[in-house]
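In the previous chapter we treated chains in isolation. Here, by contrast, the input contains two separate entities that must be folded as one system, with a combined length of 605 residues.
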Amino acid sequence: MKNMHNTKGGRIFDVLNIIFLGLLGILMVLPFIYVVAGSFATEHELSTRAFFLWPNTFSLESYKYIFSTPAFMRSLLVTTGVTIVGTFVQLFFTFTFAYPLSRRNLKGRNVLLNLVIFAMLFSGGMIPTFIVVKNLGLIDSYWALILPIAINPFNLMIIKNFFQEMPIELEESAKMDGCTELGILWKIMLPLSKPVIATFTLFYAVGIWNDFMSGLLYINDSSKWPIQLLLRQITMSSSASSALSNLDPNYIPPEQGMKFAVIIVATLPILIFYPFLQKHFAKGMLVGSVKG
Amino acid sequence: MESTIKEISKKKQISAFNHIRQNKWLYILTIPGLLYFAIFKYAPMYGLIIAFKDYVPFLGISESKWVGLQNFQDFFANPDFFRIFWNTLAIAFLNILFAFPAPILLALLLNEVRLKVYQRAIQTFVYVPHFLSWTIVVSLWHILFNLDHGAITEIVLSLTGREIDFLTDPAWFRPMIILQSIWKEMGWGTIIYLAALAGVDQEQYEAAIMDGAGRFRRVWHITLPAIRSTIVIMLIMKVGSILSTGFDQFYLMTNQLNRPVADVFDTYVYMMGITNGAYSYSTAVGLFKSLIGIILVFSTNRLAKKFGESGLY
């Protein structure tokens, strides 16, 4: 290993490489730092300075504004609720199905596994799924943001594999003690799966929080919009303030600033959980050797 | 002889029922999952038959009348067909050309870093965009490339004097899409390649150095072959999804002005199906896209096997 880098050419390459990777890393987060800085800046500064990483004048006016608008608060509440409930639903459905599928003595196991795998490769598509959701009467229901995505077949297989790897002695000794399958799952398997549960909790939560398409397809009532839809309305329509108003005719909303502030709030959960995601994902992703 | 066989099979039958009764929780636990797959995975698959019908919501799926391949014919005859096919293929081609190698190159560079702490630090940074929603990414893009006060637009203006409308100019649509894809997924994409690279035997490198191999030759002869299988499998999966551009990114980036180059299969299905209510027609388009994808995956998989790779299955 040492010999590789001791030539002159090798050292130059190493230095350039380190610089290049450093710049790349910065480039990945730079737009974000700009938005953070801009969210704490005054409207005046945003319209006069093209790009900055630190506001000249610190101001909370953008945040104050968006937290005063009913639309934003509602959307935040909706998204938080749907994310919490949805994560539990996803964990419940995925883990309860993964466990039996991991038991070799399950009758019809191969049939079920093939059904799951087939569903990974082929799907009805956007429109047939929409029709199913519509016929279930879930349009404009928050459950439409949760149920259609309750199980991700990829994740199901990863967790199934994880359960499969568990030593069979645990199961056998529990059975000898008269434990039912439910007991085995609840008292033995799940406590041992804490890192996997943690990983998937984070992934599911991030997935639901970030979900734009479900809201677009199934929620027509704008008062029920999850935050991704509100965000799009604010940042991509010609007049942000029409999408987000605090109904006070005397107050001039910070058009630019509110975009920055909403982006930051919409990304906050992900940024907060990111260090935890970092810690767990590598293990979780390689458990089933499937890219997330 | 026959009675023995009957006895044995009867025993097996009783065992099956007994088994289920004894392990009833094992089967009860499958119920939520089964319900989910039945309702939200397989019922829509059944719903695909509306591609061959003239589906009217009021009549329901079974009562709507059959029209055979009419929806497909309508699609092929539609002047949009060629445009959408071409748009989708162009993006896919650019994706494979630029966005596919990016994580591989980055993984190779990261692999060369001796200080593991630094390597992990860089990884932490480049993984971030993957966790952002497309809505956030496109919102960032709007803020940066906005014609009026986008930061990058201003920089370009001051450097070249040209005011480029990155977000609406059709000529910039594809570069913007590819740039976004690379920014968002390049970092995350390195995971699988780094994992493959970690499995390379260090002794091979040392032997190569003793034989006088320079860094480039070492990469060419040792590193790349080590991740060749991974690259091939990833490429197969990429080709299989060649017509799937992903909905969110394109929906958010498409506007009236760049629509001629922006319309792809996924957004077209949405527009025709949800916005215009042409359920059967859009389902036919979607089905067509899926079938082509399946054919492509199988063909590429076959091709890879011919070249000695293990393939996806």
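Residues 72-306 of chain B form a domain with the MetI-like fold fold (CATH 1.10.3720.10). Chain B has two domains: 2-66, 72-306. Compare these points with the single-chain example from earlier in the chapter.
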